[in-house]
Amino acid sequence: MEGLENCPPRNELEEALAKAKGFLPNVRLACQTIPTGEVHLRRLVIDDEDVELAKEQGANGFGKEKEVAILFSDIRGFTSFAESNLPYDVIHILNRYFKQIGEVILKNKGYIDKYIGDGIMAIFGLEDGEEANEICFQAVQSALLMLEELDKLNEYLELNFDVQFNIGIGIHFGEVIIGEIGHPLSKQVTAIGDNVNLASRIEQLTKATSVKVLLSKEVKERVQDRIKIGKSFQAKIKGKTGLYHIFEALSLK
Amino acid sequence: MEGLENCPPRNELEEALAKAKGFLPNVRLACQTIPTGEVHLRRLVIDDEDVELAKEQGANGFGKEKEVAILFSDIRGFTSFAESNLPYDVIHILNRYFKQIGEVILKNKGYIDKYIGDGIMAIFGLEDGEEANEICFQAVQSALLMLEELDKLNEYLELNFDVQFNIGIGIHFGEVIIGEIGHPLSKQVTAIGDNVNLASRIEQLTKATSVKVLLSKEVKERVQDRIKIGKSFQAKIKGKTGLYHIFEALSLK
């Protein structure tokens, strides 16, 4: 607890309990204390399981709210490629693709959150102090560069496998909860919340709209000075009432 | 290349090229060689990018086909819990849940493939030499134990947050491609293929059917001696023609 100076001294009742339980001075009973100014609290752990978890959690483990850009991408038709080619080739092509795409994301200050089959989820803006406009631009620029990398990969695929891939990319900007989650043996930093789901659903709309890169209006507003916007759509999005406005990103201005 | 003894000696044309290019004895021209028995080949790398990737790939990186059980689970209503609670609590609860669920999966020889928000993807049968029936049983047993762990968590949630979670679990068994994929800095072993997508879609059907654990018929056939099967459903599954038969897992027999 910070702000102890804004709490009055313990009353008789609290003092008795504090003595009996051996509370440190920074443990106060909320029911007996009326603060006179700002006080920062830490939640008390409740059972042994909580105690153990709290010990295991590092500095990243505690969860904080943050405005970030979330990018989802997916390869169209990869599953049928996987079904009709050798496992060696499937993994090799996927790794070649992820290496090129990954470089683009890392160079634009993005964090590769996870791979989901042939899909990728990336987060922009994890570091503190970055501006929303800049975060969104980094994400959209990554998407446009990913398309360039895909063009290169497609030359190779056409030559060696007589096939080309298309990708769909969806980007949204909003508040999420960032934390380190998972079983203690396999934790990873990730983003949680409705805005993550929304980004994923915008990516899925690239199929129906046949557009390569789709932005939410929250992203579009922050990049329109630097990015050429193409078509716009009104789409129904699961879990959202009414229609949701999404925009095609075409190229750098 | 293994099985060189099953290839006839180089003919004149091949000999000339082999000399000019400095081929080792185990590099043969497929167009000039008619094998008389079994021969194992390794694909030639094509460009510098391929060479670099091949160097980076470890023993797991090459991709192999394997029959595994794939388990997907998801918490119903977690997003609204996340929206209305403190980030600290959201991450804490998620970690408490993943720790308990993760233990169950690991104890049943499962591999935690990834966390997707509040969801988890696990693979059973990654080790060689396990029987299909046993692999499927481990996966279904994990699912049933996950429900027990959830009951414990729900007592804690009810007490502290006045909320309870439901989960939906889908399990499928089939051939996938196993490999280590991703950008060189963030690779992970995962499963790729249509059977992974099918497992995920079976999990999604738990919502419409209000069933906690759903099995594909490939799993059901392999566990029905040891698992009590409840309702069965005919469902339409995206990417599959006709109706697909799925089954509720109730308890151990």
From TrEMBL, chains A, B:
It is a multi-pass membrane protein. InterPro entries: A/G_cyclase, Adenylyl/Guanylyl_Cyclase_3/4, Nucleotide_cyclase. The keyword S-adenosyl-L-methionine does not apply. Pfam families: Guanylate_cyc (PF00211). Its main location: membrane. PANTHER family: ADENYLATE CYCLASE, TERMINAL-DIFFERENTIATION SPECIFIC-RELATED, BLL5647 PROTEIN. This is Adenylate/guanylate cyclase catalytic domain protein. It comes from Leptospira ryugenii.
